[in-house]
Design brief:
The chain is an alpha+beta fold. It has helices at about 5-10, 25-35, 50-60, 70-75, 90-100, 115-140, 150-155, and strands at about 15, 35-40, 45-50, 100-105, 110-115. The protein folds into two domains: about 5-120, Roll (CBS-domain), CATH 3.10.580; about 125-155, no CATH class.
Amino acid sequence: MNVTQILAAKGGTLYTVKPDTSLSEALHTMAEKDIGSLVVMEHGDLVGVLSFREVIQAIVRNGGSVGTLSVRSVMDDHPLTCTPDTAIDEVRRMMLVHHARYLPVMSQRTLMGVISFYDVAKAVVDAQDFENRMLKAYIRDWPANQPQGDAAAIKEAPAP
């Protein structure tokens, strides 16, 4: 599984903000859309990511207030990114090692989407659920006249 599959399941909605937007306005968008991050774009280029982590740190530094802060003054201006072809195992490793909750997905210089830690966890759980259903169906459909290996021996073994 790779990032393209996660983006396809997630859908195409993408929220961005300009770096000179007020932090207050960006927070309003995040709350209204119920999202944990905004991709910061300037002249068609990715220049940063704003997530609740950066917001909380900025509010603490600013004495508990958003004040007149801009997105530019708060955003992560060197965000970790991945490509649509990045394997899910690599994404999980990247997110864990770098404590990243959101990864912009870039194809060359084009923003394809954003995946979150939640999106990755959901994809892994969905894949495991599918695999479990397939294994259970396979076991249920096992031909009656075929030996089942150790499973038959375990059933016949007397209890201690």
